């Protein structure tokens, strides 16, 4: 997600500093950026010169101090509250006082993350969808503590990137995931009960409902750990049984089969 978001920002003409945890992750991030923009060149959507300009706008580093001059920081570390809180405490230390700090969380409380900083009025959620360079929606989340001007500024920036912002409050799953994951979880429950096969469920939803991907292909794209995290968060808040994670999903996550990113989830890859 981080590389995808960096690409969106750089394509929008902004100078981007991409921070990764170590040199290996940095190389993976660079690889994502290069292959995604390379594919756009091959498809005739981008010239080589434009690609070079985009890549030239992204500086990659492993040092948080390099974020010192940024106006906006978008955090996209794994979905663990302890980790996000640690990162935000560090961002609060190194970033300018007027910088807006945003989290790309898909399921955690933006309010809880904001609480680790001395500037909760400047903390928002900026939730991109996978793959970030393609999907138009960005949910912009303001908490009860966020100043409205910060939400407005981020929504304007998102629009300037050619994306469609919706501004919403801090509720588990926000809008899109709260609706989408009830459906994805039902698909997993249907598979589990032997009602239909994986392939038939996917085919029914692509050929019958006109969706670009069936639910199992989509869950593999999102990452099964992320799917489980979203369902757990929405279930904990709503107590709506439609969001009680299907056991097949928990089992795959326990086994480390997380979807495309690990080479196997509901499907096998490569
Ligand atoms: N990175 C960058 N660009 C990508 C890409 C990626 N990973 N995957 C595909 N693309 C681009 C292609 O380059 C192509 O661009 P152009 O049209 O400009 O040439 C375009 O997307 C279409 O790609 P393809 O023709 O190769 O494939 P496709 O038509 O099957 O589309 C898809 C692929 C866009 C992923 C489509 O299947 C789709 O929209 N799937 C549903 C995705 C979805 O629902 N995402 C939301 C998940 S929920 C979420 O993310 C929230 C959360 O918190 C968990």
Automatic annotation (TrEMBL):
Pathway: Lipid metabolism; butanoate metabolism. The keyword Oxidoreductase applies. Residues 1-170 form the 3-hydroxyacyl-CoA dehydrogenase NAD binding domain. Keywords: Oxidoreductase. Residues 173-269 form the 3-hydroxyacyl-CoA dehydrogenase C-terminal domain. It comes from the Bacteria. Belongs to the 3-hydroxyacyl-CoA dehydrogenase family. This is 3-hydroxybutyryl-CoA dehydrogenase. The chain holds residues 1 to 270 of 530 of the full protein.
């Amino acid at each position: 997600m981080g590389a995808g978001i960096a690409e969106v920002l750089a394509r929008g003409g902004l100078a981007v500093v991409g921070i990764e945890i170590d040199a290996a992750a940095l190389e993976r991030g660079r690889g994502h950026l290069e292959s995604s923009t390379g594919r756009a060149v091959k498809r005739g959507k981008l010239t080589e010169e434009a690609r070079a300009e985009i890549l030239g706008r992204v500086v990659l580093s492993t040092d948080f101090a390099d974020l010192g001059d940024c106006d906006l920081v978008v955090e996209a570390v794994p979905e663990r509250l302890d980790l996000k809180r640690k990162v935000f405490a560090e961002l609060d230390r190194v970033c300018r006082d007027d910088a807006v700090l945003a989290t790309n969380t898909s399921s955690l409380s933006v309010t809880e993350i904001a609480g680790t900083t001395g500037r909760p009025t400047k903390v928002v959620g900026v939730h991109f969808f996978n793959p970030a360079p393609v999907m138009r929606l960005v949910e912009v989340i303001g908490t009860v503590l966020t100043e409205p001007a910060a939400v407005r500024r981020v929504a304007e920036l998102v629009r300037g990137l050619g994306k469609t912002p919706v501004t919403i409050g801090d509720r588990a799953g926000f809008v899109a995931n709260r609706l989408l994951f009830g459906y994805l979880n039902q698909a997993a429950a249907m598979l589990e009960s032997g009602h239909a096969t994986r392939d038939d469920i996917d085919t029914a939803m692509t050929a019958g409902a006109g969706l670009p991907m069936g639910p199992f292909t989509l869950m593999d794209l999102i990452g099964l750990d992320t799917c489980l995290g979203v369902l757990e968060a929405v279930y904990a808040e709503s107590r709506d049984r439609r969001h009680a994670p299907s056991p097949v999903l928990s089992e795959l996550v326990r086994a480390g089969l997380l979807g495309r990113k690990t080479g196997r989830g509901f499907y096998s890859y490569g």
